[in-house]
Design a protein that fits this description.
Helix content: 40-55%
Order of helices and strands: HHEHEHEEEHEHEEEEEHHHHEEHHHEH
Number of helices: 14
CATH superfamily of the largest domain: Type I PLP-dependent aspartate aminotransferase-like (Major domain)
Strand order of the largest sheet: 1-11-10-7-6-2-3
Number of strands: 14
Largest sheet: 7 strands, mixed
Strand content: 15-25%
Radius of gyration: 21 Å
Number of domains: 2
């Protein structure tokens, strides 16, 4: 169907068209000079030493856990209220995800108190998710990591441009992982980035991204080698020049687009504040620290989600759910056992959260239309 107000939309224009055309005319499509330019620009933007473009955010997460030495018998503490790739990337390494609960209906990020309670002698790492673009409370999480000699991976798929205590999300832990999927604040269709300040980890990431090879096709094209060695097990997680060209342009407009998202979220919060059956998480987080990737609301227990979403659909407003809890998926119950009831806050939100439209191209009239539709849907 055609939505009056879609859930998300891509902010792209002539600059992206021209950048892609330049790549096509260059006749070099695989990872090369444009990717190097994108990596350098992204690293400068974050204030981090190393940035490596990859094929998608899941690849970034897989590499992150692999280069940290996460393996069979290890445990990694992570939230269940996330896209399944976060937990899958732990399984790819043979380790076990240990799910921790969120802060509550007003804070959909993983709770540091819950993390602390889940640490065992087998715990090797903590993988946080900056849900919706709102930063986790990283200070106590990093203290837990230091106290127990754990590594920290930041799943920053939602949070490009977000910050915590003045430091960009993705640069606080040992490794940061970004997604540039089609609905993200910075979009290349598919694609991702993995960043770190650790020189040793950076070298591992560099080789693991491309089959464990010591030189790339672009290196040999420039005459920097004729052959290569394979020094470790690696993967084909390279990106393309087309994706990197889009990323360079998208990065230039990221701050402006995130600021527009912030203003939209402010309008949402003001208009929805009086609806008793709807709670807007992360209250007070309109100070620019968030990237405002999505706008989640949590419905009261007496407002059926299916009917609420159907009513919005009738009015042409697309909605979604972020997320069905990972620990309740059939595969994870088969793997880890039926743990329903173990994460009560996550499970409540998993049953009652609805994501409303949010993208830079929304007009103020669009936001007002959605808010009116939400009020009508909530009143039955």
């Amino acid at each position: 169907m055609t939505w009056k107000i879609p859930l998300s939309d891509i902010a792209m224009g002539r600059e992206e068209d021209d950048a892609v055309r330049d790549v096509l005319r260059s006749r070099w499509l695989s990872m090369g000079p444009v990717t190097e330019e994108f990596e350098a620009a992204f690293a400068r933007y974050l204030g981090v030493k190393h940035a490596f473009a990859v094929s998608n955010g899941t690849a970034a997460l897989h590499i992150a856990h692999a280069v940290l030495g996460i393996g069979m018998g290890d445990e990694v503490i992570t939230p269940s209220l996330t896209f399944v790739a976060t937990a899958n990337s732990i399984l790819y390494c043979g380790a076990k995800p240990v799910f921790a609960d969120i802060g509550g209906r007003d804070d959909l990020n993983v709770s540091w108190e819950e993390i602390a309670a889940k640490v065992t002698g087998r715990t090797r790492a903590i993988t946080v998710v900056h849900y919706g673009g709102y930063a986790c409370d990283m200070r106590p999480i990093m203290e837990i990591a230091r106290d127990h000699d754990l590594r920290v991976v930041e799943d920053t798929a939602h949070a490009v441009g977000a910050a915590y205590g003045g430091q960009k999300c993705g640069t606080i832990g040992d490794i940061g992982c970004f997604s540039f999927f089609a609905n993200k604040n910075l979009s290349t269709g598919e694609g991702g980035m993995i960043v770190t300040d650790d020189d040793r980890l950076a070298e591992k990431i560099r080789t693991m991204r491309s089959h464990g090879m010591t030189t790339l096709t672009w290196d040999r094209h420039r005459g920097h080698g004729y052959s290569y060695d394979v020094t470790d097990l690696g993967y084909n997680y390279r990106t393309s020049e087309v994706a990197s060209a889009l990323g360079i342009v998208q990065l230039r407009h990221l701050e402006q687009n995130n600021e527009r998202r912030r203003r939209i979220v402010g309008r949402y919060r003001g208009a929805l504040a009086g609806i008793e059956q709807i709670e807007c998480p992360f209250p007070g987080k309109t100070n620019g620290d968030s990237s405002y990737h999505i706008f989640p609301v949590v419905l009261s227990a007496d407002l059926p989600r299916a009917g609420f979403q159907a009513a919005l659909k009738e009015r042409g407003v697309q909605t979604s759910i972020h997320y069905p809890p990972v620990h309740l998926f059939t595969y994870y119950k088969r793997l880890l056992g039926d743990t329903q009831g173990s994460l009560p806050k996550t499970e409540f939100v998993g049953e009652h959260e609805v994501t409303l439209p949010l993208y830079p191209g929304m007009t103020d009239d669009d936001v007002e239309y959605v808010c009116t539709a939400v009020e009508e849907a909530a009143s039955g």
